Amino acid sequence: MAQLCIALVAGEASGDILGAGLMRALKSRHPDIRFIGVGGPLMQAEGLDSYFPMERLAVMGLVEVLGRLRELLKRRKALIQTLMAEKPDVFIGIDAPDFTLNIELKLRQVGIKTVHYVSPSVWAWRQKRVLKIREGCDLMLTLLPFEAKFYEEQGVPVRFVGHPLADTIDLTCDRNAARAQLGLSDGPLVALMPGSRGGEVGRLGALFLDAAQRLQALVPGVRFVSPCANALRREQLEQMLVGRDLPVTLLDGQSHQALAACDAVLIASGTATLEALLFKRPMVVAYRLAPLTYWILKRLVKSPYVSLPNLLAQRLLVPELLQDAATPEALAETLAPLLADGRGQTDSFDQIHRTLRRDASNQAAEAVLALLENR
């Protein structure tokens, strides 16, 4: 077998995890591969020669991106030139669509095969981006089945590979063991998960704590656990808890342990809703945006649902309380019955988990090598 040269670019920690899994699966199928591009510590541990630190690409939010735009554009231009000179057998852009889709477009124009791993949410908004994807991408690898359906309809070669989280999270988890591990006793327990970013916790934190106080009147003896994404989020919540008499345990990270331990979840829309589904915990999804952002998105978003469980079920499986509908009373009243019996939701969660559990890294590796067979 001739040596393969595979270029990969990941822009943040979640992409580093996906990239490392894909690299491992590729190496087990093809003994001689050289990996170049940009990735984090996990991808480097699998043998990636990273041209610069991945941290330089990890920027969130419009304002932050503008401050770093010149550097990002300069790095991208240099990266395209380097990769054109290296002529890898395939380029794989992992997530980070605003950075990687352009690279794919330029490389494909000079005859390099291109793959994009993790679909941007084109099915929900900015649907015109699919034209750029069709032009720049030999193969799209999606984590979710409804995404693959969208690309098929748009004439983009696609493969649904399953979701790595569905592979790593067990089909059943032991609630009692998780509680013992966290030092939490018996009785009704709700996980409060207002998001991982400062802005989200700023908009949702106090609302979730108000809802928790209301819930105490509806569910005697209820207690709460809240995993904090980092020290700053913990500080934010600690300040919001001042002057409240709430039985809440704050954790550092440990979101999976919190989900395993709880009976139900009050949660911000985002990837965490998929984790709650995979842990089979009934949930109420809430979200608030800045009023102007919400007004704009309402006009742009084509999808009837915002949360992944509902998008995956293709129906209203979990309650979504958005913007003005997200009041402490409404959240508490929607949560209370789920603590008594959440099977209406969780019976479907198991089926969805099995659909997503496809050994994503190996599926992705097979799809990439199949693309290269006729090189």
UniProtKB/TrEMBL annotation:
GO cellular component: membrane
GO function term, MF aspect, one: phospholipid binding
Matching InterPro entries: Glyco_trans_19
Known catalytic reactions: a lipid X + a UDP-2-N,3-O-bis[(3R)-3-hydroxyacyl]-alpha-D-glucosamine = a lipid A disaccharide + UDP + H(+)
Stretches that traverse the bilayer: none
GO biological process annotation, one example: lipid A biosynthetic process
Keyword field contains Manganese: no
UniProt entry keywords in alphabetical sequence: Glycosyltransferase, Lipid A biosynthesis, Lipid biosynthesis, Lipid metabolism, Transferase
Pathway membership, UniProt: Bacterial outer membrane biogenesis; LPS lipid A biosynthesis
Gene3D superfamilies: Glycogen Phosphorylase B
EC numbers, comma separated: 2.4.1.182
Pfam families assigned to the protein according to its UniProt record, in alphabetical order: LpxB (PF02684)
Task performed by this protein: Condensation of UDP-2,3-diacylglucosamine and 2,3-diacylglucosamine-1-phosphate to form lipid A disaccharide, a precursor of lipid A, a phosphorylated glycolipid that anchors the lipopolysaccharide to the outer membrane of the cell.
Protein family membership: Belongs to the LpxB family.
Protein name: Lipid-A-disaccharide synthase
Origin organism lineage: Bacteria, Pseudomonadati, Pseudomonadota, Gammaproteobacteria, Pseudomonadales
